Amino acid sequence: MSKILIVEDEPIIRTALRRLLERNKYEVNEAPSVKEATGKFTLTDFDLIISDLRLPGAPGTDLIKLAESVPVLIMTSYASLRSAVDSMRMGAVDYIAKPFDHDEMVTAVKRVIGKANAANLQKHSSNTASHAIAGMIGSSDVMQDLYNRIHKVAPTKATVLVHGETGTGKELVARALHEESPRREKTMISVNCAAIPETLIESELFGHEKGAFTGAASTREGLVAAADGSTLFLDEIGELPLEAQARLLRVLQEGEVRPIGSVESHKVNVRLVAATHRDLRKLAQENKFREDLYFRINVVQLELPPLRERGKDIITLAESLLQRYCHELGKPNLKLSPEAVQAITTYTWPGNVRELENAMQRAVILCEDSQEISHELLDIDLDLVRFDDDEDSEDGTRQAPERIKPRGAAPQDPTEDLSLEDYFQRFVLEHQDTMSETELARKLGVSRKCLWERRQRFGIPRNKAASAK
To answer: What are φ and ψ of residue 319, in 5° steps?
Structure first.
């Protein structure tokens, strides 16, 4: 059973969280401040620490260093975006905006603990160093796993199939496999199968004899032969015509190539790395890709994660690209505004790293401010941004608001197992006669604007008398 420590000064939220997590089979302890948490518990005994950002005395971010390797999930209000971003940069594993619902919190907890357990298992079971790959930026778990697999596979002769969405850096992986192999002394040959006309691709790959076809004025060595003793990288191999696939299969099976128009074959020693964003197994079932070739090239498959699944790597990449383009364009060092960071981390990035590169280069070129890159300069499709709005779903689509409860509904029995939304409503109804809107918002850890929006959503009228105090 995983152990979780909740550090939250507001008893109503602390109790709700404890009950929620205990229902999901977690062992939970709680403390109202950093001082009490460190004095009462040994932080390294926990698998996760969930802490409010603003606490009496030391802020919740102090736990990041005090807890050493234990992941810290920071809770913050919508009005504290800049502080949340700073928390991430200080080492917080993630942040979650208040108020939040059950599913959002449970999903975040499972994700963080799952990643931490997987990382610990990998750390103890893997004998291969997960040092970074030249040209590749990122330290997320999925990237560490990719680095490890590259280090293991690169020294071998095994054929590798690199699969990933457009713009994820498949050629960088191929180059890393080549540079860490015994073939590194020879130049890697790269071919984009989608960029060569279908009528010419066989000639380009396998070569041809003089007079083999109209326009073949001389004998020409193909790219497969040119890669003898080296690595042949075939990008977008799913676009290779079936006739060329048959010739490639012979190269892999027999280790020889026969140019078009020739009656003789030549031995070649080629290590193939293929890449695609398409589902080759499905194409094989549809007879659009040779099944025997699919099984021949799918010896080791490396999956490149899309940018949206790489967590904090996105910010690391964005800041690295920002520095690079500032240097290339002779501009002073710029920083990302908190709104730009929010947009970057929540955008789905269908074009992945390539799209991020374009966005950062465009922003640096157009930036007239000498300090910050605003989210407007990124010029990304806001329809694909999942902003942390309380009525937004995880995929960025607007959800219908929950059913509004009757105005002035009586608070529920405090002994009931209430949801966070129930606690929110109960707290407002119980304290709005004695607290101002500013005090209510501060106690709930939200902005006045968010409190007003929640009032509208739940149908809780504002107490004019109290607000006039």
So the answer is: -70, -35
- Residue 237 CB neighbours (<10 A): 27
Residues contacting 38, CB < 8 A, separation 6+: 66
**CA nearest neighbour of 454 among 424, 412, 415:** 424
**CA–CA separation, 308 and 300 (whole Å):** 24
Amino acid 291: pLDDT: 94
pLDDT at 231: 95
376-412 burial string, b = 16+ CB within 10 Å, else e? ebbebeeeebbebebeeeeebeeeeeeeeeeeeeeee
DSSP 11-31: HHHHHHHHHHHHHTT-EEEEE
Q: How far apart are CA 275 and CA 231, in angstroms?
A: 13
Q: What is the DSSP string of 337-358?
A: -HHHHHHHHHB--TTHHHHHHH
Burial class of residue 460, CB neighbours in 10 A (0-12, 13-18, 19+): buried
Say how far apart CA 115 and CA 121 lie, in whole Å: 10
Report which of residues 289 and 377 the model is more confident about. 289
Tell me the pLDDT tens digit for each residue of 340-395.
887 887 788 889 999 999 999 999 999 886 678 888 888 876 444 443 333 333 34
Residue with tokens 């984009």: 192
Alpha carbon distance 66, 172 (integer Å): 37
The structure's pTM equals 0.57
CB 428 within 8 A of CB 420: no
Q: Is 4 exposed, middle or buried (0-12, 13-18, 19+ CB in 10 A)?
A: buried
Indicate if the pLDDT at residue 126 is higher than 60: no
Digit-coded pLDDT (tens) for 419-460: 556 667 777 888 888 888 888 877 776 677 777 777 777 777
CA separation for the pair 11, 168 (Å, rounded): 45
**Residue with token string 């619902």:** 101
266 bridge partner residues: 257
Q: How far is Cα 161 from Cα 277, in angstroms, rounded to an integer?
A: 11
Separation of alpha carbons 386 and 388, rounded Å: 6
C-alpha span between 424 and 440 (Å, rounded): 10
